[in-house]
């Protein structure tokens, strides 16, 4: 993610996006004044379920975050084998909203979009302009198996709106606190499972001339994700639903306040490496993965791939589920925020709707999904594509271990992606992590952002249950 949601995570929630781009104002619908697309069509067959014509160039705008974009290029090579003369033109972007707003308004959106990153388009503004992707699930993959039969349970939920599948989230993303297995083993440290244990580890880190945490300006809200996930684990669905549905006082719940207070204690103790609000986020992450000046980093499971060129040899990256406040939390410590991320959409007025859907069908083949897992060190929503040796990746092996440990105790939240609030929240979190604001000031600021969305009648609300 890669700044996601978000995912993203999404969701994807946050990831490798850069600050400073023009965001779509909340509530602005990207209505098109042009009539529909679709493009030239070919013969519909079992192997060509959307009737894609040969010699079609599929226009794809893909978020350039922790997963890169060349996995879509790989799908493009498979497309050219299936459809003579066809190809995928991939445009990488870190500013999806500002780059694509004019195209949606002008009626010439791309055929396929990975609507991810901190500057993704709020789904509430474009839902009526997106294809229902159920027919992709009903189609067979390249291996001849119905796609819906090849997916992990529950992975479609983040993209379902009002009974239709408007986004197909491709990557199975989990959120954890990451650390160096070799560094911890060398120093006899144990990964923390509670906030009190994290505070104690901060003291041990300081004694060793290191910090507990580090952050970068574009990814300050990674700590918002950590805080929300921890509060949900502590308080359960009541916390999650209050935040997702923008309820009054949702940021003031007892579990959330306990988490923020625990985080503030760590900040005030000087266990965060200073200067994060002025540091580009991958540079800050390298302080953890390469310089090893900090012990822990909260992130989605894209982190290994994102930092693989800036990780010291022998780092032995592993993850631990996000902390709980107490040992009597509503969800066990092993519970995870695990959700499908990287939401792919097909605009209804695209020049080649068939092309967008066909690329998605190919991406969901076992060949393409295995390629992604092997090269990105993260699983897709397609089952049985990660071998027992996890392609030699300790981080990927750790992901599978955490997923198995969580079992059915998984959850997610969607309000940041649904309403595009990350940019405003970044300002508050950078100040908080810098030690320049209190828990009360952070709470009030975050509540005002939620209230502004809730009280604006021009913004379509998405009810979460």
Report on the structure:
The protein is an alpha/beta fold. The chain has a domain at 3-173 and 341-389: 3-Layer(aba) Sandwich (D-Maltodextrin-Binding Protein, domain 2), CATH 3.40.190. Helix content is 36%, strand content 15%. The protein has 16 helices and 13 strands. The chain has helices spanning 70-82, 96-106, 134-138, 181-187, 195-207, 222-235, 237-244, 254-268, 281-289, 303-306, 353-363, 366-376, 394-406, 415-419, 422-433, 439-454, and strands at 3-9, 12-14, 57-63, 87-93, 112-114, 160-161, 164-165, 168-180, 211-213, 294-300, 317-320, 336-345, 410-411. The strands form three sheets. Strands 3, 4, 5, 8, 9, 10, 11, 12 and 13 form a nine-stranded mixed sheet that branches. The chain has a two-stranded antiparallel sheet with strand order 1-2. A two-stranded antiparallel sheet has the order 6-7. Helix 1 links the parallel strand 3 and strand 4. Helix 5 packs parallel to helix 8 and helix 15 (422-433) runs antiparallel to helix 16 (439-454). It is globular. It starts with a strand and ends in an 11-residue tail after the last helix.
């Amino acid at each position: 993610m890669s700044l996601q949601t978000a995912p993203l995570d999404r969701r994807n929630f946050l990831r490798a996006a850069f600050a400073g781009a023009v965001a779509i104002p909340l509530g602005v619908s990207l209505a098109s004044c042009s009539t529909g697309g679709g493009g030239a069509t070919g013969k519909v067959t079992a192997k060509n379920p959307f009737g894609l014509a040969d010699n079609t160039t599929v226009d794809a705008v893909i978020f350039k975050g922790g997963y890169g974009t060349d996995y879509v290029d790989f799908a493009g090579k498979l497309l050219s084998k299936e459809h003579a003369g066809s190809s995928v033109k991939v445009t990488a972007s870190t500013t999806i909203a500002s780059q694509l707003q004019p195209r949606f308004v002008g009626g010439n959106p791309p055929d396929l979009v990975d609507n991810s990153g901190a500057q993704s388009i709020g789904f509430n503004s474009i839902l009526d302009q997106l294809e229902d992707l159920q027919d992709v699930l009903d189609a067979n993959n390249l291996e001849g198996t119905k796609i819906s039969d090849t997916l992990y349970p529950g992975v479609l939920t983040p993209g379902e709106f009002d009974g239709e599948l408007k986004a197909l989230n491709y990557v199975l993303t989990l959120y954890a606190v990451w650390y160096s297995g070799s560094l911890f083993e060398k120093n006899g440290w144990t990964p923390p499972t509670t906030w009190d244990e994290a505070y104690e580890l901060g003291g041990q880190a300081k004694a060793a001339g290191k910090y507990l945490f580090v952050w970068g300006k574009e990814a300050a809200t990674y700590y918002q994700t950590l805080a929300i996930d921890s509060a949900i684990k502590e308080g359960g669905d009541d916390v999650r639903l209050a935040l997702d549905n923008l309820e009054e006082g949702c940021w003031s719940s007892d579990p959330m306040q306990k988490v923020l207070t625990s985080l503030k204690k760590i900040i005030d103790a000087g266990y965060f490496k200073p200067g994060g609000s002025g540091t580009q986020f991958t540079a800050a992450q390298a302080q953890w993965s390469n310089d090893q000046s900090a012990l822990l980093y909260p992130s989605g499971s894209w982190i290994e791939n994102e930092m693989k060129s800036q990780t010291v040899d022998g780092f032995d990256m592993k993850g631990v589920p996000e902390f709980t406040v107490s040992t009597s939390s509503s969800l066990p410590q092993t519970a995870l925020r695990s959700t499908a991320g990287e939401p792919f959409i097909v605009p209804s007025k695209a020049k080649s709707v068939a092309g967008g859907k066909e690329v998605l069908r190919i991406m969901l083949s076992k060949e393409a999904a295995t390629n992604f897992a092997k090269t990105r060190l993260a699983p897709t929503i397609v089952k049985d594509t990660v071998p027992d040796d996890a392609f030699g990746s300790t981080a990927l092996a750790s992901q599978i271990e955490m997923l198995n440990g969580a079992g059915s105790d998984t959850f997610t939240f969607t309000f940041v992606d649904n309403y595009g609030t990350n940019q405003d929240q970044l300002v508050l979190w950078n100040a908080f992590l810098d030690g320049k604001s209190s828990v009360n000031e952070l709470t009030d600021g975050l509540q005002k952002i939620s209230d502004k969305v809730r009280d604006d009648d021009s913004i379509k609300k998405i009810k979460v249950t």
